[in-house]
Amino acid sequence: MQAAGLVNAFTMRIDAMLRHAVAASFLTLATSATAYETLDQTGFEDFSGLVATSTTWVNEHGSMMTITVSTTDQVSGHYVNHARDTGCQNTPYPLTGRVNGQFIAFSVAWRNGTQDCRSATGWTGYARRNDDGTIQIVTDWNLSYQGGSEPAIERGQDLFSYVPPSIGEAPPMKE
């Protein structure tokens, strides 16, 4: 009887795991479906208009970020560095942050399981709608890193432009 009880408990556990996996799959599909609605740039007021939508942005150096804003103003996503003469390029790094109206703050720790550049960058800025109706995120950034014998901080600015999704584009990477 003990063996039958163990088999029954094992079967129930497998069944529960399968139900959880199916539910997670439906959640992923639902998230992917909403993630590719094109942002109405003309109606953009602030980051609350991006809730539950993944949007992609590119800066003047070709670096790209894909972000999702939650109903609690949390920002999550990933960042792919393409800036010339820098490390940690061409692979996604987790991005986290917060929004408040049209203002945004986000950061990337440059370690992702593939590379570790032993550095971190924080951006702060705001979203603006240009006269032509396009949306950009204007930011200042601080990069902290090991510079020679002691830590250092480099400062700069980035201008991110919204990239509308292309037809047939793959869903954004999930964290």
TrEMBL record:
It is found in: Secreted. The keyword Secreted applies. The keyword Repeat does not apply. GO terms for cellular component: extracellular region. Residues 1-35 form the signal peptide. Gene3D superfamilies: Avidin-like. Keywords: Secreted, Signal. It comes from the Bacteria. Pfam families: Avidin. One of its GO terms (molecular function) is biotin binding. This is Avidin family protein.
